[in-house]
Structure formats: C-alpha cells, structure tokens
Design goal:
88 residues; mainly alpha; two-stranded parallel ribbon; flat
Length: 88
C-alpha cells in the first residue's frame, strides 16, 4: 500500500522517533488521500498521526526476534543495488 514506508523493526541502531513519526504521517496521508489537510481537518489529521505514532512505537518496543539486528548501511546498499537493476 505505502511503498515509501520503510521497515523499522530490528535495526541497529533502533528506529528514531522521527522515523516512526514519518511512517505514521505517510500512512495517514495515504489513507486520507491528502498530503496537506485543510485547516478544518488539520486537528483530526494531527491526532491521527500522533495516535499511529504511539501505536507503532508500542509495537516496535514489544516485538521480539531471535535474528540479529540488521545494519542500516548494508540494507541501504542492497536497496540501491535493487534500484539500479530495476531502473537500468
């Protein structure tokens, strides 16, 4: 659904609050169909972003895995390689 939302779980270092909030913002934008809400809907939009941010943070904090944490730089390099292949 939201291609720009990145995986946030099991990374070293862990996801920052900004990353979690940006994912929540992208989700609310997609669901609402609006990248910038009208003044009339701005409060509802911001409440939704805040609520989803809190839910995602709670989820990330409660998830467990036996896998070692992924390295952000290695994952970014893999993504760049996939992009080169895709758009070559």
């Amino acid at each position: 659904m939201c291609r720009n939302i990145r995986q946030l779980f099991n990374f070293d270092p862990p996801a920052t609050e900004d990353e979690v909030r940006n994912a929540a913002l992208q989700f609310v934008r997609k669901v609402s169909g609006s990248s910038k809400p009208s003044l009339r809907n701005e409060d509802a939009f911001n409440r939704a972003v805040n609520s989803i941010t809190a839910s995602v943070r709670e989820l990330l904090d409660s998830l467990e895995t036996t896998q070692p944490p992924k390295n952000r730089e290695e994952e970014a390099a893999k993504a760049r390689a996939r992009t080169l292949i895709r758009f070559a």
